[in-house]
Amino acid sequence: MKLKSLALAVAAASALAGAAPAFAQAKEQFIPVLSYRTGAYAPNGTPWANGYVDYLKLVNARGGINGVKLSFEECETGYDTARSVECYERLKGKGGGASLVQPLSTGATFAITEKAPIDKIPVVTVGYGRSESADGTVFKWNFPIAGTYWVAADAIIQAIAKKEGGLDKLKGKKIALIYHDSPYGKEPIPLLQERAKMHGFDLQLLPVTAPGVEQKATWLQVRQARPDYVLLWGWGVMNSTALKEAQATGYAREKMYGVWWAGAEPDVKDVGDGAKGYNAVTMQHGAEPQSKLVKDVVSMLHDKNQGTGPKEEVGQVLYMRGAMSAMLGVEGIRAAQERFGKGKVMTGEQVRWGLENLNLTQAKLDGLGFAGVMRPISTSCTDHMGAAWARIHTWDGKAWKFTSDWLQADEQIIKPLVKSTAAKYAAEKKLTARTPADCQS
Amino acid sequence: MFYRENGQFKTSYRADQQVFPILQDRVAIGLVLIFAFAVVPFLASDYLMRAILIPFVIISLAALGVNVLVGYCGQISLGSGAFMAVGAYGAYNFFVRFPGLPLIPALILGGLCATLFGILFGLPSLRVKGLYLAVATLAAQFFSDWMFLRIKWFTLDTPSGSVSVSNLQVFGWPIESAASKYLLCLVVLVVVAVLTKNLVRGAIGREWMAIRDMDVAAAVIGIRPMYAKLSAFAVSSFIIGVAGALWAFVYLGAWEPAAFSVDQSFRLLFMVIIGGLGSITGAFFGAAFITVLPIVLNQALPVIAGWFGAQISTVGIAHAELMIFGGLIVWFLIVEPHGLAKLWSTGKQKLRLWPFPH
């Protein structure tokens, strides 16, 4: 090759590397958006990201947080942990410093959990991440607001018990957990084992290798063991594959319960009628096309061609999850402003305080357009989760419909489990639990 | 002109056998080292160090290890990700199970675990070669995936199967800031690179290359194939193991087996092929090409689109990144099938005659 053209190429490349993307303006609250719109998990990652970004835009359209506008930048992770860490490092210092980060992947949550305390950036994991991080005395910077996998698992067991006519009826039953073989899929196991011990049901663990397309062997085991119920802890393509396999195996979809990441439209759309009767636990909300929030998004953004993603997907399950995740982060910033000065840009540490002192009453939720979508949430220094409510919704072939009342995860089981697991983490890391004085800071 | 060696006469064997026999090379390498050690930590931003330089340095180390095996000994391996994983989990187990064990010995012990693992999975190389061996080493990859997902002992029974480390320090010096992490990885890289360079120049390296070029002929002249192949597996997996431990400890902090998936093995193999088989510098070029270029593209594309007044979506960037990256791989391999290192040495050759080429 000609040396001259090589030299040119190198010069061009270095010029590109030097050109830093434009920085956001000052006096804006910066929020990094880690999302995945490509790769094996894109069908599920995209609606979440659309909801998340739309909500941030909506806050700006409504005039910001007490006048402080939000700025944000998206970074594509492809659900890859190393790439997520790169995105986190890229965005954490932008726009005067990231207010909070939502990694949207359990693997990335684990990696960023180790970095956030040093960078002083709160890690908000709405409905995912590590379950024991609900203990704020050990995990100062983690906020699994509104639910963890233990809440999801507990709610499912309760729903099954209700169907059977009481928790004591679970004795001798066989419940299989088909899970994504990663930290994400393994999260519910400790709780399920605890419940199995309490009620005497038989828990079968059936792992599926990521991304989850290959499930033939797993469903052969299901066919063999004939479990009374199947819990599905999948994400992305794994969910629809599982439903198709269930159909092929002849396993009743009515007896299948998915986690909230296995209960959205992309999971069942392709299976259509084959998924009829399939249940999934919700993280408070389901598909909410009638909510005020959705109407606001449509009228203030999509009707003005400023929306993100297709208009008809606004209000679907994962879209709502994204919007709710963004809302909880934004409300954390608002709570921080109430203490540290309204109309000011908050630092990561101040936002952390705000997230720890969230008090979303019904009136506030109604004002934000979340009426009927979710229940009030209040967090504290010790409790970074704030609420443990869930519902079950069922796919009727065309849409998700709620089929249960509100279920609250049993604190008596979750609390000791959170405490002991968090204590183990603290011991490993040689962390001391936070003092009451630290709670006020 | 730049590489004219007029007047550089060697008067002793020592001088003739130097790693860098040309004065200009010695000066250049010295300057690069000074720059990397003394200038970069002060100039580079936190992001540049944490998200680009540290992964680049660690992956270079891994690529170096792969190059020993694939480039110098000719044993194609698709198990590099597994060797990294064994190094990472090995170091983790030593680090956590023996309180008070310093970081450096833990890294070395992790490397030694990978060595044993590598020798074990190198045994098929005594019977099969080439693509067949690649498939055989793929077994190492699947075995390690299975092992670290299923055998709870390795992850200390953590419910989620994800492990993490913290409070790293070397000789009482905390490895927390970006600069300290970068310098630690760089020191390891430089030490290993110097040792490897000497190893491949020495008797062992010559045995490896003889095996690579024609194993039957090598056996005829008295090289023991078993010893040569297994030693290549041992050295290579030790280096890859140390790199894996650094990747887990220093870069990620918390990890799961997916961090060392089969993708990582493929990427490492591509790195040595694109960088240049059988070349130490090739490992660096390859690592830069595969790890840094996508990130540069990812950040440069919106800027370039901005120059033309165009807006490009996140998905658009991600797809364009893949397309351009794939295109570049093809282009480079067509232009120079022997890799970027060969390109560099061709450039050097031209600089020698510049400005009077013939």
Automatic annotation (TrEMBL), chain A:
Keywords in alphabetical order: Signal
SUPFAM superfamilies: Periplasmic binding protein-like I (SSF53822)
Cell inner membrane among keywords: no
Domain Leucine-binding protein: 30-396
Entries under InterPro entries matching the protein: Leu-bd, Peripla_BP_I
Signal peptide: 1-24
Family: Belongs to the leucine-binding protein family.
PANTHER family in UniProt: BLR6548 PROTEIN
Name of protein: Putative ABC transporter, substrate-binding protein
Lineage: Bacteria, Pseudomonadati, Pseudomonadota, Betaproteobacteria, Burkholderiales
UniProtKB/TrEMBL annotation, chain B:
TM stretches of this protein: 27-45, 51-70, 77-95, 101-123, 130-149, 179-200, 232-254, 266-296, 308-334
GO terms assigned for molecular function: branched-chain amino acid transmembrane transporter activity
Keyword presence, Kinase: no
Pfam family membership, one: BPD_transp_2
Membrane-topology descriptor: Multi-pass membrane protein
Main localization category: membrane
Compartments in which it is found: Cell membrane
Keywords: Cell membrane, Membrane, Transmembrane, Transmembrane helix
Matching InterPro entries: ABC_transp_permease (IPR001851), LivM-like (IPR043428)
One annotated Gene Ontology cellular component of this protein: plasma membrane
Positions in coiled-coil regions: none
PANTHER family: ABC TRANSPORTER PERMEASE PROTEIN, HIGH-AFFINITY BRANCHED-CHAIN AMINO ACID TRANSPORT SYSTEM PERMEASE
Protein name stated in the entry: Leucine/isoleucine/valine transporter permease subunit
Gene source species: Variovorax paradoxus
